Amino acid sequence: MRRLRAPQLQALLTPGLRSVAELFEKKNYELRIAGGAVRDLLSGVTPQDIDFATTATPAEMKEMFTSAGVRLINNKGEKHGTITARLHEQNFEITTLRIDVVTDGRHAEVEFTTDWQKDAERRDLTVNSMFLGLDGTLYDFFNGYEDLKSKKIRFVGKASERIQEDYLRILRYFRFYGRIAEKPGDHEPTTLQAIKENAKGLAGISGERIWVELKKILLGNHVNHLVQLMYELDIAQYIGLPLDGNLEEFARVTKNIQNLSPKPMTVLTSLFKGKDDVTNLDLRLKISKEEKNLGLFLVKQRQELSKAAGPEPLRPYQDFLMDSREANMNSRIFELLKYQGEEQLLKEMQEWTVPTFPVSGHDLRKMGVTSGKEIGTALQQLRDEWKKSGYHMDKEELLSCLKRL
């Protein structure tokens, strides 16, 4: 048996977790850390959230926690076998070991078990199928640790069976590939075959679930390789991507934005040829309004709005921002600069503060312009002069300008 003595594990053993562990020990129920948190700990990463697995049934856990006076949080996980207990200001999600009895490609009906290997068998990938005792003992039935060390992504058991239990696992395969694999193209041929044969199953998965996975893929490594693969394996059409996606542009843009922390939508838009592609994506994945607007903006402006030749390359972007009355426009312009690979201009644009137009209607009234219509016209003329000056003219200069006009 392999023992893990990582400082990360020590950090997890909070007073809350120690109290939980004592309760389970007293009743002779086994409690272990499960899945993604084990993978993270073995990779030297501190897990964001930790799932626990146990041999105790939900009823036994409820009984045990209630009689110990521990608060339970009702979060509707109970029918899947999950109980959430709160101790020392910390929530603990603990799930009974289970076997999938019936699966329909979206969700499963489960029955409880005390067999750790049976529970590991129903998990998706070998690197996600390990358990860790709180003493650091690693329980690894499918060589997950070896795969993690050699950066291999494999399904537990037969790929086609795992995928048919939940077709979203196709995208999870891609996501973890982008997170763990060292280089593109290192797939088992049987895995790719299983994905291709089952791609159609993604048509039945909700857009929201797909979008969550797709966003993570778009921000991970090897994204160009993985999206090309989605087209080769006939996945694209079932997840809202255009049939004739612009893969050359995608390859170019994914290179541009490697170190610029783009939004997922910025990366994805490079596949699109026009605004219909954004609309279709929205219909399938129910993206947010902000994401949709960003996609439409990029499709429209990626060619139109570009840097100026000469000493003021940023001027077109600044002018666009000043003319636009929309909130959020500066963040869209940042994304456009990332898309275009303009790292230096992006830095300058992020440091540029939007200047405030120095003249108001009140100033004009003081100068004797009284009719509302005239004030409107004069303000617009002054705004134009101000813009021509690169937003440098101050109130005095603008008002003396008005006398000339």
Automatic annotation (TrEMBL):
GO cellular component, as recorded:
mitochondrion
Q: Which UniProt keywords apply?
A: Magnesium, Metal-binding, Nucleotide-binding, Nucleotidyltransferase, RNA-binding, Transferase, tRNA processing
Pfam families (alphabetical)? PolyA_pol, PolyA_pol_RNAbd
Write down the SUPFAM superfamilies for this protein, in alphabetical order.
Answer: Nucleotidyltransferase, Poly A polymerase C-terminal region-like
Taking every annotated instance into account, which residue ranges of this chain make up the domain tRNA nucleotidyltransferase/poly(A) polymerase RNA and SrmB- binding? 188-239
What are the residue boundaries of the Poly A polymerase head domain, all occurrences included? 31-154
Q: What GO molecular function terms would the record report?
A: metal ion binding; nucleotide binding; nucleotidyltransferase activity; tRNA binding
Secretion signal: which residues? Answer: none
GO terms in the biological process aspect are:
mitochondrial tRNA 3'-end processing; tRNA 3'-terminal CCA addition
Q: Which cofactor does it need?
A: Mg(2+)
Q: Which family does it belong to?
A: Belongs to the tRNA nucleotidyltransferase/poly(A) polymerase family.
Annotated protein name in UniProt: TRNT1 nucleotidyltransferase
**Recorded name of the encoding gene:** Trnt1
